[in-house]
Amino acid sequence: MEVCYQLPVLPLDRLVPKHVLSRRGAISFSSSSSLFGAPDPRQLSQRRGAISYDSSDQTALYIRMLGDVRVRSQVGFEPEGRISHPYLCIDFRTLHTRLDYESTSTAPERRVHRLLSFQRYLHSSRLLRGVPQQIPLHILDEDYTGQARCMLEKVGNWNFDIFLFDRLTNGNSLITLTFHLLNQYGLVELFQLDMVKLWRFLVMVQEDYHSDNPYHNAIHAADVTQAMYCYMREPMLAKSLTSCDILLGLLAAATHDLDHPGVNQPFLIKTDHYLATLYRNTSVLENHHWKSAVGLLRETGLFSHLPAEDSLNMERELGSLILATDISRQNDYLSRFRRHLDQENLCLSNASHRHFILQMALKCADICNPCRPWELSKRWSEKVTEEFFQQGDIEKKHKLEVSPLYDREINTVGNIQIGFMTHVAEPLFAEWTRFSDTRLSQTMLGYMGLNKASWSGLQQEQTSVSKEAELGSAGGDTEGSAATTTATATAAARRDSITAQAAGGTSSKEIPQGSKES
Fold first, then answer.
1. By three-state DSSP, how is residue 410 classified?
2. Which residues does the annotated region (Disordered) include (predicted)?
3. Which residues lie closer than 8 Å to 34 by C-beta, 6 or more apart?
């Protein structure tokens, strides 16, 4: 997006031209309106500025402010000559910040209150304490270019490196990726989404993810969104999903862990957290993610132009998708999925069946890390385990019962991942492959088998090293080294075998990408 700032070209007593205020999405204001602190807004004819974009050119946002020195001084611009400054970089969120100054009016000042997520509450408390924000401000006209844009051309590739993409977008992977996918599907134009409201919504969504969470952060949300896109491109879904299904699928993926506190549901319950009380100990986090997403939709007014019934229905279906990611209900969804496949009664022309498949697709996308290439999968595994261990440390500190698998002294990344693959990931992706037996599905199963073998090999290496340390003798050292070498060779051989199987007989370097894109 481009931002154009134009200094006044009209005298102060001249009105804002009608063609400016009549542009699609125009937001007009006056220096005396409530936006700048006065109690009562003036009439339209007295307003002194506008923010608009033309319906024929939605890639540019025009900010027009007409010569009120008080306004310019509040937003940080010095009075200058009447010249134009195109492509001025400003923080998008300053457009929504209420500018306060001393008012000469004696009327009580009207204050606007908003619900704060955990993350925004933390930011506001830091500001009150004088602690600078750790997250850099997002720039409205910062577009994805160069390498990031090249990566987006292959966003349907299963080997998509979301960590690299996040670095290339300066930490804005969720905003950039979701915005790109919505545009690629033509959903912005189809649903007549206001570009300003959409961008503001995505910025607020990314901000409400906790960047200090090792795993449940905005990068994870972006990764799930990219995986969801890959699944929706599968032939069985691509020919059946409606535009509304696609919009809900992408928004659910982007917001499915919104405002995640970095601890699990049992922790919230045993600490008597207010969220556990609010949602009666049932799908506590998922309900919070859903309600947080609805709050941002309503705060930004993204669907405000739709009929009220349609907007409420989209919010309900969004909640249904997000609630399906509750891992404690995994067996319920898996049993229903298996029953449909056994009876062969899935009909994707049926709206309820399509919605159920979207739920299963989002569940797969949420836990697809074991199915990624080893370098990505290992990194995600280390991150989620570190988040587990951090919760375990908190439980120990406060003398609470440590949750299973959350004690760093008795668990390792390897044994946690092997158990997760065996009991959770493998059953789910086996059924997904029954539903959609494609190259992508076979690739995911191949990678998961490869990664499981790699973790088993690392576990054997660690066991050998431990025995070697205990023996402490020359003979023991030799035996331990031999065991380590054997374990490593076995893991490597199994990896080559699984890779060749996943690639359909190709070499280990020619793993299929799960996409037609090269």
1. coil
2. 459-518
3. 40, 41, 110
Its pTM stands at 0.70
> Of the residues 216, 260, 289, 340, which is catalytic?
216
Q: How many CA atoms lie within 13 A of 500 on its CB side?
A: 8
Cα within 13 Å of Cα(21), Cβ side: 14
Q: Per the annotation, does 43 bind a ligand?
A: no
Tell me, what's the pLDDT at 118? 60
pLDDT of residue 9: 40
Residue 343: Cβ-neighbour burial (10 angstroms; 0-12, 13-18, 19+): exposed
Active site residue 216: yes
- Is residue 63 a contact partner of residue 5, using CB atoms and an 8 Å limit? yes
| Cβ-Cβ contacts under 8 Å for 331 (sequence gap 6 or more) | none
Cα–Cα nearest to 440, from 517, 497, 366: 517
213 carries a ligand binding annotation: no
pLDDT band with cut points at 50, 70 and 90 for residue 58: very low
Element (H, E) at 389: helix 374-397
Q: Looking at residue 469, what is its pLDDT?
A: 78
Confidence of residue 299 (pLDDT cuts 50, 70, 90): very high
Q: Is 219 annotated as a binding residue?
A: yes
Q: Is the pLDDT of residue 224 over 70?
A: yes
Report the distance separating Cα 44 and Cα 263, nearest Å: 50
Side-chain-side CA neighbours of residue 317 (13 Å): 22
Where residue 502 falls among pLDDT bands split at 50, 70, 90? very low
Q: Is it the case that residue 103 has pLDDT exceeding 80?
A: no
Residues 6+ positions from 180 with CB-CB distance below 8 Å: 144, 152, 155
